[in-house]
Design goal:
Pfam families: Glycos_transf_2
Organism: Archaeoglobus sulfaticallidus PM70-1
CATH class of the largest domain: Alpha Beta
InterPro entries: Glyco_trans_2-like, Nucleotide-diphossugar_trans
Oligomer: single chain
GO molecular function: glycosyltransferase activity
Protein name: Putative glycosyltransferase
Radius of gyration: 20 Å
Structural class: alpha/beta
Helix content: 25-40%
Strand content: 15-25%
Shape: globular
CATH architecture of the largest domain: Alpha-Beta Complex
Number of domains: 2
């Protein structure tokens, strides 16, 4: 890999956005505290209608702003940003969401680890924005017996139990630094099969299986406003049918049928596949039922009533 600056290689921070300009502004403000001196910000605005483009152009003219028509979804938006990063000869791509804030030293910690580990993906410790000491993900593992993707430390209070740098198998790519060599050798996100959800896990697990290192670096900390799309999309009065259709058909659903099945068929060992598929359908039915008005109004279901 050819670097223009061996001490401070160029990092391209790629951020896909769609509306939520307040989150984007808060994220960009947090980047101003970053101590690493050599980075460029690439924002891919996929058809925002809330003034995001105007806000960025006015308040953050240094940002490289790319535009979509609202149909890029996450994978194609990220790919567009990565292609721009390659065009400006970045050495690393840092993928992160616009609903995050970052620690001032997070980028330096990522780059320092990457320089010690060429051709690698370095991932951050991700914590909840609303609960700053609660871990969302400290790297991730794959456990097909339990049901595939397992975020390490999820929901735990951060007491320093995950302060050791270590190898992991995959990541959601929130605050992840990727050596551009990996994109050149392996390709970008698989937007055809995974336009929104599972593209990040698919990419990192493909990289892991091809022999690239994925390293968790706890000194890099990111606070994430964890996506509540499903909770906002599904009112408590949703019927079983409408909930089931949303969970299986909507691109914004992490249980989207097409993406989930394609992910399992690509990665799950054949001897675990029946168990994994059975669990998927069981969870799908349970979540659909939990949004059923009859379930939510427990007075209508005698066996769910609390005994006096």
């Amino acid at each position: 890999m050819s670097k223009t600056n061996y001490q401070y290689p160029l990092v391209a921070v790629v951020v896909p956005v769609h509306n939520n300009k307040e989150d984007t502004a808060e994220f960009l403000e947090s980047l101003k505290s970053v101590t690493y001196p050599n980075y460029k910000i690439i924002i891919v605005d996929d058809g925002s209608t809330d003034g995001t483009e105007e806000m960025i152009k006015t308040a953050y003219p240094e940002v490289i702003l790319l535009k979509g028509d609202g149909n890029l979804w996450w994978s194609r938006a990220v790919n567009l940003g990565i292609e721009k990063a390659l065009e400006i000869c970045a050495d690393y791509v840092l993928l992160i969401d616009n609903d995050c804030v970052v620690d001032s030293g997070f980028m330096s910690a990522l780059v320092e680890t990457a320089l010690r580990n060429p051709r690698s993906i370095i991932v951050s410790k991700v914590l909840y924005y609303d609960h700053p000491n609660k871990i969302w993900e400290a790297g991730a593992d794959i456990n097909w017996f339990k049901g595939e993707y397992v975020p390490i430390g999820h929901g735990e209070i951060d007491k320093g139990q995950y302060q050791t740098e270590r190898y992991v198998k995959c990541s959601t790519l929130v605050g992840a630094l990727i050596d551009v060599t990996i994109f050149k050798e392996m390709g970008l996100m698989d937007y055809k099969n995974f336009p929104q959800f599972k593209a990040d896990i698919d990419f990192t697990y493909r990289a892991y299986k091809r022999g690239y290192s994925i390293i968790y670096q706890p000194k890099s900390q990111v606070w994430h406003k964890v996506d509540s799309t499903i909770r906002k999309k599904l009112p408590k009065t949703s019927s079983f049918r409408s909930t089931f259709i949303y969970l299986t058909k909507d691109m914004r659903s992490p249980m989207n049928f097409n993406a989930t099945i394609k992910y399992y068929l690509r990665h799950c060992p054949f001897y675990f596949l029946p168990l994994v598929l059975l669990k998927y359908f069981a969870v799908l039915l349970l979540k659909s039922w939990q949004h059923n008005p009859l379930y939510l109004d427990r007075k209508k279901i005698p066996f769910l009533q609390r005994k006096s």
